[in-house]
Write a structure and sequence with these properties.
- It is a single chain.
- The protein is an alpha/beta fold.
- The protein folds into two domains: 203 residues, UDP-n-acetylglucosamine1-carboxyvinyl-transferase, Chain (Alpha-beta prism), CATH 3.65.10; 207 residues, UDP-n-acetylglucosamine1-carboxyvinyl-transferase, Chain.
- It is built from 14 helices and 24 strands.
- The longest helix has 13 residues.
- The protein is elongated, with a radius of gyration of 22 Å.
- Bound molecules: uridine-diphosphate-N-acetylglucosamine.
Length: 417
């Protein structure tokens, strides 16, 4: 099994180009199922979760050709509506094919997503909302077996809780439903805006009515398009933290700074100097890092997907900090590994109290999930000596060329088998 060796401590200096967003690409790939025409997608990151989604699409009959970060998808002969456990178990986003398959075939059988380390992650909000479009479903032997005897029909749907995946599934399904759908209390993550842009360019009729309300007028068919996926804001945030924690000087390129203004504001508050340009941000880390109290929240709040990374930085604050995790119930698994490196983090329910002034010591470590893995790299970059990070397949789910990008800015990092 592959591992990463990281030799700290180095100050990172140089430029990093941010890849296309994994979390924007996944729903867009699921939404290609609505089309029978050729779809050309650009800026798709080469990461494991995307490979898994492409395997799932191919299993459904999609033809996919890839060249570097470009994908050409042709669904003219796509005709299956069954997504197997083997493909959906490893990646929760597999459930995003349910909406488009129902829109296209009025019936689908999709495996429930597998258990996930960061929480139970149910799909009740997706199912309840789909039933409002006329879908009847039952859960049988780990599968959602769903059909809409009269086809999908638009309706008013209020999400009881903000869910990124449920908002995406419903936008996609309602795009081909008969009549008008009004979705309220929607997630408004930038990746959802990218999905809406993709669908509208394809001929769908989706409009933001107010901050969390979307109106969708169903269309009968969609047309051929080319779409370039937005940048990965979590990757951008991760490298911003990498600069801050190593007292480095990085220029983070190929981004829209306005989309990550919450993260920029927090890093500034903690002491980093940040210079914002048109499509890039320069960050200069400060030796003195202030403390803070933050809560994770749906966009535009602080993202749960950056919680582990910011926690590492807060270990270096001059005083204690507090993080409250309000999205997932079990997302502190990185804490045990960080404490093995010398951190002093106490958790109590969904709160973590982070003692400042920590010098991380190198260690052999175990990655537990995607963002936890990267937080261990960040800590290891500051530890004096060699750290080894095991189970990096988690990391490969979502970070494109991470060693290459970090090496280019001076990190001593190596993948070994
Ligand atoms: C997406 C992101 C993930 C991110 C998360 C929150 C993708 C592929 N993944 O995940 O990286 O961490 O948003 O920003 O884009 N919930 C229910 N019932 C449901 C659906 C969700 O109770 O039917 C709960 C979840 O357990 C969680 C919360 O709602 O506690 C938010 O989940 P959701 O926004 O749906 O996250 P994902 O779409 O799975």
């Amino acid at each position: 099994m592959q591992k990463l060796e990281v030799f700290g401590a180095t100050k990172l200096k140089g430029q990093i180009k941010i890849s296309g967003s994994k979390n924007a690409s996944l729903p867009i790939l699921a939404a290609t199922l609505l089309s029978k025409k050729k779809i050309n997608l650009k800026n798709v990151p080469k990461v494991r979760d995307i490979e898994t989604m492409l395997t799932l699409l191919r299993s459904l009959g999609s033809k996919v050709n890839s060249k570097k970060n470009q994908l050409i998808i042709n669904n003219s002969k796509q005709k299956k509506n069954f997504a197997s456990y083997n493909l959906v178990k490893t990646m929760r986003a597999g459930i995003l094919v349910l909406g488009p398959l129902l829109a296209k075939y009025s019936s689908a059988k999709v495996s429930l997503p597998g258990g996930c380390a960061i929480g139970t992650r149910p799909i009740d909000i997706h199912l309840k909302a789909l039933s409002k479009l006329g879908v009847k479903y039952k859960i049988n032997q780990g599968y959602v077996i769903a059909n809409a005897p009269k086809g999908l029909k638009g309706n008013k749907i209020h999400f009881k809780k903000i869910s990124v995946g449920a908002t995406e599934n419903l936008i996609i399904a309602a795009s081909l439903a008969k009549g008008t759908t009004l979705l309220t209390n929607c997630a408004i993550e930038p990746e959802i805006k990218d999905l809406v842009d993709f669908l509208n360019n394809m001929g769908c009729k989706i409009r933001w009515i107010s901050k969390r309300t979307i109106k969708i007028i169903g269309v009968k068919e969609v047309k051929e398009i080319t779409h370039s996926v937005m940048f990965d804001r979590i990757e951008a945030g991760t490298y911003l933290v990498a600069a801050a924690i190593t007292q480095g000087n990085l220029i983070i390129q190929n981004i829209i700074p306005d989309i990550i203004k919450t993260e920029i504001k927090i890093l500034k508050k903690l002491g980093s100097k940040i210079i914002i340009k048109k499509n890039e941000v320069q960050i200069i880390g400060n030796k003195k890092i202030k403390n803070i109290k933050i809560k994770t929240a749906p966009y535009p709040g602080f993202p749960t997907d950056l919680q582990a990374q910011i926690m590492v930085l807060l270990c270096k604050s001059t005083k204690n900090s507090i993080i409250q995790e309000d999205i997932f119930e079990n997302r502190f698994m990185h804490v045990a590994e960080l404490n093995r490196m010398g951190a002093k983090i106490l958790t109590n329910g969904n709160k973590a109290i982070i003692k400042g002034n920590i010098n991380f010591a190198p260690a052999e470590l175990m990655a537990t999930d995607l963002r936890a893995s990267v937080s261990l790299i960040l800590a290891a970059l500051t530890a004096n000596g060699k750290s080894i990070i095991n189970r990096i397949y988690h990391l490969d789910r979502g970070y494109e060329n991470i060693e290459k990008k970090l090496k280019k800015v001076g990190a001593k990092i190596k993948r070994v088998s």
